[in-house]
């Protein structure tokens, strides 16, 4: 008895009880139409041939020739029956089917995705952009300046809600500190560049997604990088730059035929020459509003500037550079003690300058708004800060920075939104829009904080002198007009220096400068210790 025999892949013959059944599997080159029917006689006749095929060694070539091919008609019967071929589903067909299913599935997923990406624009859906709700306490910006930018941001991020609160400068630092300590926020807060030690524990560290340290250092002036970098990272973003500059009354200079000063020696001479008194000896026009602490706005910055330019050590004035500190503080007090160009009978310096009573006045860019409130018709401009005489002409000119920055509360529930808003506002396009919005609102635009935007203002009659010296500006915790309260860093340190300056003015004794500096140094050390401040 024969069971399955494979004849070269073309047929399977099943032999049982002298019967053979054939299952035809075609070769690719077969031309099939009809196939002869095998009779019993020719099956028996070829039994020996089949046996021969079965018993042949494995691997030998037993392919039959055309003459004895198994499907020839051995019976001679001319009758033919119809053969219908039904192909067997092989592995290749299965693979093809699987590929087809995968393609259809991929298309079903891809088409809706393409539609969403190409058709759905910002503002069309509810899941676009950064989401959350934050409150921003802003100081120095009016709502009509920043609200258009906020609206623009919310349009691109429809799931965000941003509330801007225009804060009053009165007791601002104390109110802010209390609100944060009570866990009430705000999420975004404005602080002075010198306030980082006071708010260090409440400020969030700038994420790398916002900007890396290297990018920050390339984008902003070195003074901002130094002020805003802590041991943990960067804690704020400046939307402005500001610092001391020298305002001059052009009408007074023109009438007197004077040229603006470039050095402190020239400045001192001009301050005396441009000061006039009435017949009772009362000052009616001051050459410059410097020399005392009582009614001179920004006097702490002026003293700090003189200390830096004279290479004194502001962290420890009585150290190895004590002589430089003594000379700087004495130089400032001399304008009142000996030169008598300014005294307490005059209004506050910003107001006096606005009224046309001062030829030269020191102040930051933000003082312009105050000046304009008193007198919009004042004929003035600004020039770079005077410099001390130097033996090395290659040394850069030094100015003193005093500006405001934005930070993020580290306990905010929506810090991602807060940082993303600041990233949007800190872009050049946004800064220009805020600058232009300020002009529309009738206030001075903030000098740009970015190095790559310096050239936009370098020729400005008022702001040009500020950004001109920004690359080499210095800063310290001596800052006036910050409203940090009686217990604030600025107020405590200013009080230490105030006692020293007032002593020199009252005694008119330059020899007392040594003791004054030693006292300042020891008292200032206590202030620094309170806020965890070390040398720079």
UniProtKB/TrEMBL annotation:
Keywords: Membrane, Transmembrane, Transmembrane helix. Residues 50-73 are annotated as: Disordered. The chain crosses the membrane at residues 96-117. It comes from the Bacteria. Residues 50-66 have a biased composition (Polar residues). InterPro entries: Bact_solute-bd_prot1, SBP. The keyword Transmembrane helix applies. This is ABC transporter substrate-binding protein. It comes from Candidatus Woesebacteria bacterium RIFCSPHIGHO2_01_FULL_40_22.
């Amino acid at each position: 008895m024969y069971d399955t025999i494979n004849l070269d892949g073309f047929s399977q013959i099943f032999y049982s009880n002298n019967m053979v059944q054939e299952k035809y599997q075609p070769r690719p080159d077969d031309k099939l139409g009809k196939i002869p029917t095998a009779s019993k006689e020719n099956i028996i006749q070829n039994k020996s041939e089949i046996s021969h095929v079965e018993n042949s060694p494995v691997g030998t070539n037993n392919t039959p020739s055309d003459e004895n091919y198994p499907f020839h008609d051995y019976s001679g019967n001319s009758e033919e029956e119809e053969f219908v071929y039904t192909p067997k589903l092989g592995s290749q067909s299965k693979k093809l089917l699987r590929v087809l299913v995968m393609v259809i599935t991929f298309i079903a997923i891809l088409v809706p995705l393409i539609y969403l990406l190409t058709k759905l624009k910002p503002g069309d859906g509810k899941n676009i952009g950064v989401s959350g709700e934050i409150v921003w306490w802003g100081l120095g910006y009016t709502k009509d300046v920043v609200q258009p930018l906020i609206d623009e941001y919310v349009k691109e991020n429809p799931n965000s809600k941003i509330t801007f609160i225009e804060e009053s400068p009165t007791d601002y630092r104390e109110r802010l500190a209390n609100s944060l300590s009570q866990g009430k926020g705000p999420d975004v807060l404005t602080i002075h560049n010198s306030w980082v030690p006071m708010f260090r524990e409440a400020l969030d560290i700038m994420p790398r997604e916002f900007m890396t340290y290297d990018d920050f250092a390339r984008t902003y002036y070195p003074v901002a990088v130094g002020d805003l970098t802590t041991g943990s990272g960067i804690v704020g973003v400046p939307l402005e730059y500001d610092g001391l500059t020298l305002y001059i009354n052009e009408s007074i200079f023109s009438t007197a035929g004077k040229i603006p000063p470039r050095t402190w020696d020239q400045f001192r001479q001009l301050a005396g020459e441009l000061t006039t008194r009435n017949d009772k000896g009362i000052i009616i026009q001051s050459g410059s509003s410097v020399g005392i602490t009582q009614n001179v706005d920004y006097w702490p910055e002026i003293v700090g500037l003189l200390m830096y330019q004279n290479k004194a050590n502001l962290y420890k004035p009585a150290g190895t550079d004590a002589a430089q500190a003594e000379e700087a503080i004495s130089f400032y007090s001399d304008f009142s003690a000996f030169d008598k160009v300014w005294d307490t009978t005059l209004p506050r310096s910003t107001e006096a300058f606005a009224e046309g009573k001062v030829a030269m006045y020191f102040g930051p860019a933000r003082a312009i708004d105050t000046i304009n409130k008193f007198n919009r018709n004042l004929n003035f401009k600004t020039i770079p800060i005077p410099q001390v005489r130097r033996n090395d002409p290659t040394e850069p000119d030094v100015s003193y920075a005093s500006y405001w920055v934005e930070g993020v509360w580290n306990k905010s529930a929506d810090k991602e939104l807060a940082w993303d808003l600041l990233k949007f506002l800190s872009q050049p396009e946004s800064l220009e829009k805020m600058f232009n919005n300020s002009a529309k609102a009738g206030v001075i635009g903030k000098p740009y904080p970015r190095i790559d935007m310096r050239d936009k203002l370098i020729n400005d009659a008022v702001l040009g002198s500020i950004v001109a010296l920004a690359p080499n500006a210095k800063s310290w915790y001596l800052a006036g007009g910050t409203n940090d309260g009686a217990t604030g860093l600025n107020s405590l340190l200013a009080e230490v220096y105030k006692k020293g300056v007032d002593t020199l003015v009252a005694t008119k004794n330059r020899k007392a400068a040594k003791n004054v500096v030693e006292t300042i140094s020891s008292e200032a050390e206590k202030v620094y210790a309170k806020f965890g401040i070390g040398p720079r």
